[in-house]
Predict the structure.
Amino acid sequence: MPITPEQRAEIDRQRSQEAATRRATVPALEAILYEPITVLDHGFVRVIDYMGDDSAVVQAARVSYGRGTKKVSEDSGLIKYLMRHRHSTPFEMCEIKFHVKLPIFVARQWIRHRTANVNEYSARYSILDREFYVPAPEHLGAQAVVNRQGRGDVLEGEEAASVLALLRSDAEAVYAHYEEMLNGREDGTVIDPSRQGLARELARMNLTLNYYTQWYWKIDLHNLLHFLSLRADPHAQYEIRVYAEAMLDVVKRWVPAVCEAFEEYRLGGAHLSRTGLSVVKRLLAGEPVTQEASGLSKREWRELMESLGRAE
Amino acid sequence: MPITPEQRAEIDRQRSQEAATRRATVPALEAILYEPITVLDHGFVRVIDYMGDDSAVVQAARVSYGRGTKKVSEDSGLIKYLMRHRHSTPFEMCEIKFHVKLPIFVARQWIRHRTANVNEYSARYSILDREFYVPAPEHLGAQAVVNRQGRGDVLEGEEAASVLALLRSDAEAVYAHYEEMLNGREDGTVIDPSRQGLARELARMNLTLNYYTQWYWKIDLHNLLHFLSLRADPHAQYEIRVYAEAMLDVVKRWVPAVCEAFEEYRLGGAHLSRTGLSVVKRLLAGEPVTQEASGLSKREWRELMESLGRAE
Amino acid sequence: MPITPEQRAEIDRQRSQEAATRRATVPALEAILYEPITVLDHGFVRVIDYMGDDSAVVQAARVSYGRGTKKVSEDSGLIKYLMRHRHSTPFEMCEIKFHVKLPIFVARQWIRHRTANVNEYSARYSILDREFYVPAPEHLGAQAVVNRQGRGDVLEGEEAASVLALLRSDAEAVYAHYEEMLNGREDGTVIDPSRQGLARELARMNLTLNYYTQWYWKIDLHNLLHFLSLRADPHAQYEIRVYAEAMLDVVKRWVPAVCEAFEEYRLGGAHLSRTGLSVVKRLLAGEPVTQEASGLSKREWRELMESLGRAE
Amino acid sequence: MPITPEQRAEIDRQRSQEAATRRATVPALEAILYEPITVLDHGFVRVIDYMGDDSAVVQAARVSYGRGTKKVSEDSGLIKYLMRHRHSTPFEMCEIKFHVKLPIFVARQWIRHRTANVNEYSARYSILDREFYVPAPEHLGAQAVVNRQGRGDVLEGEEAASVLALLRSDAEAVYAHYEEMLNGREDGTVIDPSRQGLARELARMNLTLNYYTQWYWKIDLHNLLHFLSLRADPHAQYEIRVYAEAMLDVVKRWVPAVCEAFEEYRLGGAHLSRTGLSVVKRLLAGEPVTQEASGLSKREWRELMESLGRAE
């Protein structure tokens, strides 16, 4: 359970408040507003606020004086046109704000996307909670051999057990020492009144990178889709991909027409290199082509054949 | 009148629609939502959408699970603290979207602020309207002599009349030729069916820089305040300053506590240089200080004395 | 001739100075440093400074303590890998600074790329030169009918002559009035000593959008390539495309291995949509596919067939 | 010693190479190019490359065809003018690239500055070194009581010894387990051939936040100065401030005139709030003002009196 009863009550209180607005409103997103969507063992994604909807993209593209929309089919045709031709500015006219709880090592990857606004929980100011990530056994991947930057098979048996035990015991040990150095606990109590306690900004350095942090993260739709195209991708590390997938579901609720265009023109397609394109042309002309004669490396050849559904 | 009856009707239609939302809502801003605020002779600023309110700043600063606010006085104390100590990230958690109609030469200054999202009316795709800016007589400033980058006295008499006549007649002449080259008019009619008409993307180059363009412009509160601190400043050109002032009024409606802190810690104060600070210290110590002995240039000295209310 | 003899002398003086440096240096780029490359009738692109070379990409990707390079083939393999997998950060480690002279309507498109540093010639402070763009007859495109945002056939005969005459005479007229309002000329002389002259920041609004402006423009290699992929594209307006093409030639001199990877994986390839990819798979499987049965619009079908070299 | 003999040799090799260039060159910066400047116990800052010098600021501000400089006094006057009036774009025309080795918790603060280019050492791809930060005894600050976000007195005696012992033993323990989980060591050897080893991207989560990471970090001068104004400030955490101070020394070598203007108009001055300014005016008018009657909070009053050298 990633949230406490007190937090649950705060969320419920906020969900219970309603006001009238003239702004573009999306009932399907209102339905889940503020609700934590569980990710990993203690993490979550919550939508805190949003601006705009599918029509807001159309309205901006037409620089309209009113709602800007015409028939639904024309609007969705325009959205597809914009996505296809990389006219990104109308998609920047929608904005969304998330509250995210995530392990620090995931936060370190995530923050590399610079086009968002971020407000992180301060471990200089506050004491971090005793919450750390331990992978589920089925995600305990071994180091991949070919792709030095990925995972291979799942560890099993004694090796898996030993890894999980180390992760848990180290996380617990460093937290106990964190509190000891602080001379204080999460709940604000003091351990030893005769001591001063190390500054929080220093003590935090004793925590491991699987400890959870939290932030408010706000981004426009165009940059969110760019983030999702990189992080909902199979090459992304599993622990960030699950956050991206949760947010992709949110995008579907929020701007379904944009999401459909995104899946058609970005996520679901394939990018051919110049040489890859010439291979496809030769194959279509009925010419036999081998990897050796293709001009592609073995890896590129294999990936091209896979994307064409021709894996041998 | 910057808008047509058709545009007025579109705006009224949009204003008449209301929905229920769980999001942070600001009645004082809802009251003017979509309404054009007139600026210059044909320009306007309209608020199209917004995200957040004063409390959203507090909520993000506290990385809260609920509304995040405490007593009003505590919240406004926190906002002042954040503004004073340049903790800018919580202010980035509010966002606003404007529809702006403005002369092209103003747009060229405005766009230099890179941290906004912009979607401009396309003169490659559409025909621009026959609307251009002519300064009111009281803003027809002569070239300043000391400050090469500003205005001095207002032009008068025959010189003023001549300038206004030239601006008007040139703007009208280039527009007539614009339509002639396009072989088409604003209303979509064709002038001479035997001609093809020049591409819009080329014909537009015949228009003068006082023609109006329009855009949707979206920005977070922190960057908006930065924009306003530069453009609502007396050193800014009058024609962009009036837009900044109109937006500052919007900010007051939207986030009054933030606006108050902004006026206290940014707009209304003074920045002293290292040397200027030492002058103030010496003056406070009762020491007589002259410009010559101050280490400040004449201009810096004059500006310091002015900001200290000691203009001789 | 886009530059004056005085400017030529300044450039020659700067080109004649040499110093020793330990920094990465590219002789092929040094050879053209500071030299204007003519674009359009009065415009140019000049390389003013640069940071890094092909090896700097490799060095950053390896977070190296030294030069970071291994064998040339390994380095270029790594560069290809980075480009293919959209690892963009190492390409951001190279930077280039241009001095560009360009028509204002081109500058207005160009500036929409926000990830660059720009310092523009100030028409608030200085008087603009009497230089404006007039298209060569072969670029005088008519408005395209299908693509509302482009050019069709070239205008001919009397219509072309009339357009060119209007562009020239209007540009000349507005400039004469610009000087008259300023009560001053390019060379600094005063026209009528009994007049004050309108402020420069106002008078400039009387110029047409084909007047030339200038700026220093500095950008990292990753963002430059993104700019070039959009602006060296056939869909870009001719008048900005020629600048992009000139800069692409500069990139070839500067970082040849990066440029080759860019042409292989970005410029020269094709992006297939999800539906487009399924069409290719069906064709490769020997299945006959028609536009009607493809799920693609007519336009998408035509573009796919063209990119596959199967234009009917 | 933050670097190994192999790294030292690589650096020396790179330092020994020289080439001729027409670019702006700064001998005082060339002198230390590539040299590590030690920071903290195992960290460093190295200048890898730079673009521009003091004159490059002037050249861009004048949009010059040549070097753009006039007399040294005029140039430095222009630089002061630009700094004073917040004309930031000419300062963006200089760029610098650093290689930085720093503890992860420092990197997490640093990366919040979004206007830089960053390429970090990948712990998905490589094994991190066994290097972690332990504060020197004189920097072992206790938690501050008034300022919840800072340090108070230095810990002493047994409490200090205990903290240092915990930091060291935990860092060593987690590293030993990191290697055990990886089934591999820094030097590439395998621990137990019968095991697979956990993926690097997972094992790294067991390291504490005081482990060192490294990155290439590239930024323009304007944004660097902004970074330094926040991070070379007494309110910044000591562990990032020392990096900022090392970089400020680099800036002094690189662009001495800019650095002087920065110290005069940014670092060395004071910003008065609207109320603070009115207090100063009243004091200068000889009026007695107390905190209670000032309109300032106690803390603001104390800070104002301190900056005016009137601390009671």
Q: What stands out?
A: The longest strand of chain D covers residues 43-51. Chain D touches chain B through 30 residues (CB under 8 Å). Chain D has a mean pLDDT of 94. The CA atoms of residues 45 and 169 of chain D lie 27 Å apart.
